[in-house]
Design brief:
Layout (H helix, E strand, L loop, with lengths): L6 E5 L6 E6 L11 H13 L3 E5 L33 H13 L6 E5 L2 H9 L5 H9 L2 E4 L1 E10 L7 E3 L13 E10 L8 H12 L6 E4 L6 E10 L6 E10 L14 H4 L10 E6 L4 E5 L3
Parallel strand pairs: 1-6, 2-3, 3-4, 4-5, 8-9, 9-11
Antiparallel strand pairs: 1-7, 2-12, 6-8, 10-11, 12-13
Helix pairs in contact: 2-4
């Protein structure tokens, strides 16, 4: 688990509303990837100055011919992997998906690895692959999970919205400007929950794992939000208040059923994946957070 430090977003207006996306379970390199959905989300983030994103793991399929139990040449995307790339599947996929993320690199906070990255790196002794990927994009390496604060600073003199990464404190930090802090926890996800009740139980488990205001998880290929409130006190200690917390399971970009192809999801009769990322909307001016997912 990583504690990468504080991220600061400097913005000019009290009315500014932000979206924080969790882009997970792309499985790049598989023929079943819904590339149009993925690229539409990337474009939406790139064009919205108030959108920022996290990468939630399983960004590549990362299954090599050495993995005799899972490797299936029929699901390889020839646009990503040529025959000669099968001797170096990890680097070929990571290089290709890196290029897809480059348009939004300035808006990416960091990236988690998922079970696909973790298994491939461990079995191929390429533990530095995920670090290389993060370094190439200039973002934080969240490993499998990370807990951090996202601080919004309203600076009326700011000419544009600007992300300050950990270790690069904004000059306006000491000017007594209005701040709103959101604690974020991101984890790739775990378990084989298939039913709605199983996924709800998975979200409940993550809800009690940290004190984060926003928790993002993936892995189950289904976009499901869960909201809960906890009791807290005002700063002066005389008023009891409710504090909202959100746990959001984000969607995927790998289709479960693809015409002309049989993937592992079809073999195991998994439900249809919810295609596309989920995001949380944050309004620093009012201190409100709300989840938005695809259906």
């Amino acid at each position: 688990m990583e504690a990468p430090g504080k991220f600061f977003i400097e913005h000019p207006s009290r009315s500014d509303t932000f979206r924080l996306w969790d882009i997970a379970d792309i499985h790049w390199g598989n023929r079943g990837v819904a590339k149009s959905h993925f690229r539409t989300d990337i474009q939406a983030i790139a064009e919205d100055p108030r959108s920022f994103a996290l990468i939630g793991g399983d960004y590549g399929d990362f299954i090599s011919p050495r993995d005799r139990r899972r490797f299936d040449a029929r699901v390889i995307d020839p646009e990503v992997l040529a025959v000669c790339d099968l001797q170096n599947v990890g680097y070929a996929i990571a290089q290709s998906i890196r290029d897809e993320f480059k348009p939004i690199a300035p808006k990416l906070l960091g990236a988690c690895l998922g079970n696909h990255e973790e298994k491939y790196m461990r079995e191929h002794e390429q533990q530095d692959l995920h670090s290389w990927f993060c370094t190439e994009l200039g973002i934080s390496n969240f490993q499998y999970s990370a807990l951090f604060d996202l601080v919004f600073i309203r600076n009326p003199r700011a000419k544009a919205i600007h992300l300050h990464r950990p270790g690069h404190l904004p000059r306006c930090l000491s000017k007594g400007l209005s701040r709103f802090t959101v604690r974020v926890f991101i984890h790739h996800g775990a378990g084989a929950a298939v039913t709605k009740s199983g996924k709800a139980n998975r979200l409940e488990r993550f809800a009690h794992l940290t004190d984060a205001d926003i928790t993002f998880v993936g892995h189950c290929h289904d976009a499901t939000p869960m909201a809960c409130n906890i009791l807290t006190l005002s700063q002066d200690g005389f008023t009891i208040r409710e504090k909202p917390r959100l746990v959001v399971m984000t969607g995927a970009y790998l289709t479960t059923y693809t015409q002309g192809q049989t993937g592992y999801g079809e073999v195991r009769a998994y439900p249809l994946a919810t295609l596309g990322a989920a995001w949380v909307r944050i309004h620093p001016g009012t201190g409100s957070i709300s989840s938005e997912v695809r259906t």
